[in-house]
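Here is an idea for our session: we take a single protein and study its fold together. To get us started, please write out a protein record for me. Start from the sequence, derive the backbone structure tokens from it, and show both lines together. Go ahead whenever you are ready, and we will take it from there:
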Amino acid sequence: MTSEQVASRTAVRDENGSGTEASEGYQRGLGNRQIQMIAIGGAIGTGLFLGAGKAISKAGPSLILGYAIAGLVIFFIMRALGELLMYRPVSGSFSEYAREFLGPFWGYVTGWTYWLFWVVTGMTEVTAAATYVQYWDKSIPQWVSALGFTVILYFANLISVKLFGELEFWFSMVKVTAIMGMILIGIGVLTLGFSNAGKTASVSHLWADGGFFPHGIGGTLMTLHLVMFAFMAVELVGVTAGEAKDPKKTLPQAINTVPWRIALFYLGALIIILSVVSWTAFEPGVSPFVEAFQRIGLPAGAGIVNFVVLTAALSSCNSGMYSTGRMLRDLSLNGQGPKFFAQLSKKGLPLRGTTVSAALMLVGVWINYQWPGQAFDYVVSFATISGLWAWVMILASHLRYRKLADAGVLPQSEFKAPGAPWTSIFGLLFIGMVFVLMGVDKDARISLYCAPVWAAVMWVSYLVLKKRNPEAFARKPHPAPAPEVEAAA
């Protein structure tokens, strides 16, 4: 395809679903501060607050190194996504890019898999929230709390996107403020020696209690899937592209905050916590942040932190309900999903897709009823592999886009990923290693058992839908990127 053919494409979606962002129908109600906080808050959730307990028990202080290396890969992924977003900011995001650069089949699989990821993640978050409630009252059944939170968050999504952004802004603000507070208190314990932990708190905990690698490098490697799960949802900022007021300004700014977010909220928080309290004190299923405050001797502080991590889980689930409805609508508009999901409400919200997704999240309530002690591990393992697929598609789409852009077939993005294409190749190899390690870990292996089943469902449904509607799965010319929005430097 020539650049002239590319330029001749309009950015208007026709009745068959081709095209891009011009007539998506969403309201661009998300401002800069909301996008920034959604980007920050998306990476602070269950994986850090609850999942870190299990990871610490497996890897010890070396978990810090695991987060640092994985964080670097996350930055590569986000810069690859950023380059694609500046080429064409659409709410379908990486599903749309997979459809354009890898083929309609890959866009189909990516859209449905990412939708599944958020449905399963929603189960994870309400599971975590129900676990946090038992900190105050163990008599409340875990499944009851999970049911109540799912219903409440569903109704929270029956608002305008502007109000959604405002709620997420304050949710994220609570999480950020809490982590900053924990870090400052921990520094106070280390330097001033106050509280019950003051006499024993020391940075030497990072290497004195069995060494930095107490279970060897192998123990650290076996936690990488938990580490990667903790970072999942950072890509959610790409889904907001269709509703951001100034996507080519706000999205690059949000993506460029990834390094310091990881350094402060993950590495900084873990270094302080593991210095104040030895890693041997932490157990799977217990938030290390809550445990640290209890060891310090501040029970009120532990209760406050428990409330914060509860809101973090609910915030992440709320974001999941936001993204599932939009992903289903993107599939519908492209003829790769039921037409039922294409309609928007008067407020510009894809409520049909959100409603169906929320109903399926109630499966998480049943999981909590059947296996309350194992529910978190089950849903984390399956959510991880679904989320990793989205990252693989981002990197693969970026490699294809960069090749076409360098050849002059497509316009160059003004927000190029540094070090590309090698950074994207490294990211793909790293994720491949995580897949292999998940196969070795008996606790995470269940997700690999489920993956072939999901792949078979995708392949069979693809063949059926392609036969019914060949146009929806036919290769289309590259849509022209929207030229009216000034690109960020």
Q: What stands out?
A: The chain has 22 helices and no strands.
